[in-house]
Amino acid sequence: MNRGLFSKVFIEEVRAASDIVAVISDYVRLKKTGQNFVGLCPFHSENTPSFTVSRQRQMFYCFGCNTGGDVFEFIQKQEAIDFPEAVRLLAKRAHIPVPQQSPAAQKREAERQALYLAGELAQKFYQHNLQQRQLGVRARTYLKQRGIDENIAKEFGLGFAPDEWEGVIKFLRMQGLSVAIAVKAGLAIPRPQGGGAYDRFRGRLMFPIRDFQGRVVAFGGRMLGPGEPKYLNSPETLIYNKGHLLYGLDRARPGIQRTDKVLIVEGYLDVLACHQFGFDYAVASLGTALTQDQLRLIKRFTTNILIGYDADRAGHQATVRGLELARRERCQVKILPLPANEDPDDVIRKQGPQSFSRLVENALPVPVYHFERLLHTHDIGSLEGRIAVAEAMVPHLAGIKNLVEREEYTKKVAQKLNLDQHLIKTQIEASRRAQTKGADYKQGRGQARQSLMPAVHQAETAALLGLGSLFLNCPQLRLTIGDSISKEWLGNQPLAKVLAVMLTLFEQSGSDFSLSDLKNKLPDAKTQAALAQLAVHPVPACEPMTLIAHYADRIKLIWIQKEIGSLRQEINSQNRAGKTEDSANLIRRLADLHREEVLLKQLSSGRDTGSGWLEGGTRHAEKR
Questions:
Q1: How many Cα atoms within 13 Å fall on the side-chain side of residue 395?
Q2: What is d(CA 386, CA 623) in angstroms, rounded to the nearest whole number?
Q3: Angle (deg, nearest 10), helices 525-536 and 455-473
Q4: DSSP secondary structure string, 203-226?
């Protein structure tokens, strides 16, 4: 699938109706800073916002991971979809009808829509069964026994799959959907022999699973009578990947944003109980352990995570796996101290919502959680037991980055175990060195490349950013910039390629070119990201003519220095080949370039003397 599926007119109509700040605000919490908006990047882990959105330019750029683009590219990356699907999603958001597509695209989209329709119809079928006086009595009785009231059951769309071989299949067929679609939607299973299929879910309480947009994409079913498995879930399909979704997120989103926290539990009933009693920021991971995609989905709304998995061995193992992933994503995590062999639903039903609220309020920081677990599994009455606990705590304490926090927890561990705090600290420092030796190399490579980058490259980047920002944002200066610089001076940096294309467009059509026209002329993703960087880059707040001359001279100086290097190599090559006459011509050219180099250095030195304003805006942007 490609951009050619839609006309340029339609794409621009969708673009005009999709304000990038409004769209991105559906995924990222943005704060207005000057003319731009900033937030935590959804595409990489960070604690300090480096993700910048320009409403004026309708572009975004992250100064941390160098990802940027327009509203379509944001949706493509965020939703992991291709360009046509991003156009359709934004068109739907803006209530713009989508024009007809190619037969192949229509077939693919028709199948996706058929699966969404199958999920929606099946949910209505199951919900209707639950409400039927006779048919749904067993499921309603079970819900009553579990304390789930009718309002929550309706809000979450619960239903009942009758104990029939072709219940949902027949219903879908009556609505015009084929057995093949029922199979592709995960609602039916092909018969091993002969044709046809049979219902996947039979005699089960049904929990519809919705995507971020609230569409039913799958189901979970609990057996109400004898039989295995106790819980049966839909297989992954064209529209369902369990590692990418969280049960109840579509209902929990307002609560998460209001409280700035999310409670992750293990089961469907845990989510229902939490929402019924006011903990409306609860979701469930579809499986026993969190995935990185689920954590990144959560980070769109909050970085404060409470984990409320069952207090059994499996729940502990799932918690530990989730803690490690959350640490990598730099989330703030606490763990609910649930009683042994009880889940959130049990606590709420048996002890009341007030008791559960206290568990939420007293959720354990990660080091305390590990320490409490170790104290319950070791005999600290013996020296061996205390040493075992201390040794097991060392990597957890070593993982605490904040020195004051690490010291405080180390002190508490030493006091509880009656061991020498200094000796524990010695082991922690050794563990930190071992932990960070490889991590520092991997995580620091990007920063090292930037800090070790040759000064000439940094200077070129600064000049290109400054000149490109002036050209893009100040149309009245474009003629002056065009007269001040030659495209011959521009190298192969993405920023240089963007500036070259802007100069060409200006030569061809004057100042009358759009950002989308410019973007379509760029050769690759790197140059398109560079354009986004220019779009959000602040315009240097100094006298523009002096700035233009400074930036242009710097770019020319760098070009001359590169030419000098190339000429020297060529002269050496000519001399080795005995071509002294050709070499003499090159030497004269080299002398001319050296004279020009000296002149430009003198000019640059004169402008820079006693002032740092020429670089202020650029350096500020590079650090953001």
A1: 6
A2: 47
A3: 70
A4: SEEEEEEE-TTS-EEEEEEEE-SS
> Within a 13 Å sphere around the CA of 345, how many CA atoms are in the beta-carbon half?
16
Strands (E), 12-158: 31-33, 36-39, 51-54, 59-62, 68-69
d(CA 249, CA 283): 6
Cα–Cα distance between 240 and 245 in angstroms, integer?
8
Residues in a beta bridge with 237: 240
| C-alpha of 126 from chain center | 34
The helix (run of H) or strand (run of E) holding residue 232 is: strand 231-233
CB 87 within 8 A of CB 6: yes
Residue showing tokens 């024009």:
99
Split the chain (624 residues) into runs of 10 and give each run's mean pLDDT: 71 92 93 91 84 91 88 86 87 88 76 95 97 92 94 97 96 96 97 90 97 90 90 94 92 88 94 97 86 83 88 75 80 91 93 96 93 92 92 91 91 94 92 67 42 61 86 85 85 86 83 75 85 83 82 85 82 75 74 81 60 38 35
Tokens representing 463 are 């000049």
Expressed in percent and rounded to 5, the helix, strand and coil fractions of the chain are: 60, 10, 30
- In angstroms, what CA-CA distances link 292 with 177, 242, 253, 285, 548? 35, 12, 19, 11, 46
Task: Give the C-alpha separation, 75 to 85, whole Å.
Answer: 9
CA pair distance 191, 52, nearest whole angstrom: 53
- Expressed in angstroms, the distance from the first to the final Cα of the chain is 36
DSSP line for 258-302: HHT-EEEESSHHHHHHHHHTT-TTEEEESSSS--HHHHHHHTTT-
Q: Which residue has 């606590």 as its token pair?
A: 347
Instruction: Go through the chain and tell me how many residues it has.
Output: 624
**Inter-residue contact 209 to 245 (CB < 8 Å):** yes
Tokens of 513: 């070119």
pTM: 0.64
* Peptide bond before residue 523 is cis, with ω within 30 degrees of 0: no
